[in-house]
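Exercise 3.2. Students should predict the tertiary structure of the chain below and write it as structure tokens, then compare their answer with the key that follows.

Predict this chain's 3D structure.
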Amino acid sequence: MQRFPAASPRRIAVLFANALFVLFLAVAGAAAQSTSSGGGDGGSSGPPSRWFEVDQLNEGLGEPGANLSRETPQSAMETFIGLVRDKRYEDAAHLLDLSHIDVADQKRLGIERAAQLEAVLERKIWLDWDSLSDRPDGMDPRGSSRDATAGQPRRDISLGQLSLDYRPVSIRLRRLKEGDSDPVWVFSRQTVDNIEGLYESYGPSRFEKWLPASLTKNTPLGIAGWELIALPIAIAVLVAAFLLTYRSLRSLKSNVGDGVLWEVLDAIALPAGSMVTGIIGWLLTRYLFVFSAPVDVFMSPLWTAFLVLALIFLIVRVFDTILERVFARNIDDISKPENEGDRELQTNLSAARRIALIVVAVAGFGLVLLQTTIFDGMAVALLGSAGLLTLVIGFAARSALSSIMSSLQIALSKSAKIGDDVLFEGYWCTVERINFTFIQLRSWDRRRIIVPVDYFVSHPFENWTKKDATITKYVELRLNHLADLEPMREAFQKFVEDDEDIITKNESKVQVVGHEASGMLVRFYADARDPTSGWNMQCRLREAMIVAAARLEPKRGDQAIFLPAEREAKIVDLTTDNSSDSTDKQN
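Answer key:
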């Protein structure tokens, strides 16, 4: 039996919680670096200059109009959007870098690409006008001091990122200078090359082309009329898909009977329904209902997050089902001394479950950041505001992370394994489950005691099966001072020889450990192989020793020899002829 003080594990748990929070920030930082780095396509590897130099810019388009403003990133975007809305695609082509295209094809392709870019921007890019600099050098005065480009001129700016052929591509503005002319901001040549592919992926679908023109016009809400109709239809389809999948699996489960397949279907019904809903939602918004940017800016990250959460849910449920099969043995069986290996296995699997869930959750969070654009600045903000925001998030997450890491610390250090017999705050219990935030203990009378994991590790407890399940039990009897202990030793020795639960019989002993006026305190010691058999043996030993003492008690009237008796003291009053007796009874 060993006692475990809990102060040190709590400190270790807090350290692990802090380390996990740092890991969270590292994942967020990696996502931020991937989604918001500004090097861009084709930039030089050295320190950025104020512009990129070109020999000829859009020679095949002729001279741009006098009212064509391209001096700043914001003015360039305003000019492009204004021109394409007026269907002036030939003028809008001057906002594209077509210098790598044959001069003879620049006008035709410029008009075509400008119209296609209009559709892509309208449908998939949510422009943050406040972040678009209105300075010719493109410097963002709002940039964080931790941003490498803060306070510096920029010649390449990302407006957003989309997926094309399973790879991320950026839509970027670049500052170009042609000879002695003033530098201007236009869409980069790499963006121009990707416009056709982006249009095929995110342009009007066949469904939208089939719609009448009246439904494709924008409403006062900023979205097309058909989108107002398609949104409730899509929601109804998704709800129907979830219910159909869930009920189908539940119905199938009821027809297969008990067994492994029943458990698998029961475990995956809800996460599978969620996965199917997420996949159908992604397909609907990807190929049928290609919503505009005001809707898509929320829908795309929503589906990504939904699919990641559903996948995590599915993994957890499957893992839990496997663990339930492994843990199918009764807790009474694995608590036996010969099943030490089973207790070790169950504890390790329980720890592996929590580690896997943490890893999957952190990886899923990073995946959501990497695959969505709505959170592009989130990770940078987390790292950049290492003051108040980090403290607030860290304090809010400290308790939960501390509990999680405390449960991992218990499982990994094996201070208490599943199936161990422990004495916690006077309760003799068996460890039944080690969860993230609480430990489930089963008392000897089959009650479940739920203990917060932080509380458990911060208080000492006795583990009766930590190294060896052998336990020494004793019975106390108070006997008369005149009692002869040899007959009691003989009765005790006979009990030891006959009882099968007593091991190391030669180490059993009888000792007088105290005395007082009512008698002497005698202890009978015996070893048992485990706490359960020890308890039963202790009860039998107590009964046998009481019976033996009663049998050895002589029949001499009221005089007691073995069992303690009340003692009487006779006091004689010498001041009178008539003596009076008084009795003082003591225990």
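Discussion points: The chain has three domains: 16-28+223-414, 41-187, 470-587. Residues 1-9, 30-48, 377-386, 578-587 have pLDDT under 50 and may be disordered.
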